Every structure is written in C-alpha cells, then in structure tokens.
Amino acid sequence: MADESQAHTSKMRKILSFIPTALSSTVSLYIYLFLFIYLVIFGGLGLLSQLKFLAPSANAQLILGNYTNVLSALGASIAAGTSASIHARQKKHQNELMQEIAKLHAKIDGLKVKARVDGD
Fold it and tell me: TM segments (predicted)?
C-alpha cells in the first residue's frame, strides 16, 4: 500500500515538474503571443473607426479569453521558463562549487601529510 502511495506521489511530482517546462515552451509562447496580438493589439486598433474591421468579435473574445488572462498567461510562461532555467543553472554551479571544495580539501590534506613528513 505504501509503495502505491509513493509511486502515485512520484508520478504526481513528475507531472507537476513538467508544468513549467510546458508553459515556457516555444509553442506555448507563440500561442500566447498570438492571443495577445489578436485580442489586445487588434482590439485596441478596432477602437478606431477606420479599423473597426480588425476588432475581435465578442464571441472570439469570449472563447479565446480576455485581455487580463492572456497577459497573465504570457507573464506566467516567461516567469516559469526563467525560473526553471535559473534553477538548473544554479544547481550546475552548486555542483561545480562542491567539486572545487572537495579538491581544496584534498590539497589541504596532502599539504598536512607533506608537512608531517618534512617535519619528521
């Protein structure tokens, strides 16, 4: 029973860890940029009487989402991608730092041994 629970938790973690990657994918960003341009830019231009034909219909706005949702989704995608890449880079730097610390400890231990040998 505990194994099933741990397996379920592991699957859930994998799914949840995939979300930032999916949100920051190139395809996702293109979708949000398209929605932003269509709903916000064309919607703003549609307020001008000469460009009324560019304004999205009320049904299109309802189906594709409102301005706030599109902007927040775009912001969330960018933030997710940024934080995921920063986390990966930080982990890499931490591993490199730990390797350098281990090398320094080995050198210090070697110097201590050499000092004992030279002192005797």
Answer: 21-47, 67-88
Rounded to 5 degrees, what angle do the CA atoms 37, 62, 30 make? 30
- The residue assigned the tokens 């309802």 is 62
The number of beta carbons lying within 10 Å of the beta carbon of residue 21 is 12
Residues whose CB falls within 8 Å of the CB of residue 55, separated by 6 or more in sequence, listed in order: 42, 43, 45, 46, 47
Q: What does the alpha-carbon distance between residue 9 and residue 2 come to, in Å, rounded to a whole number?
A: 10
**Domains of the chain, residue spans:** 2-86
How far is Cα 107 from Cα 29, in angstroms, rounded to an integer? Answer: 49
Model confidence pLDDT, tens digit, residues 69-102: 766 777 777 777 777 667 778 888 899 999 999 9
Residue type, 119: G
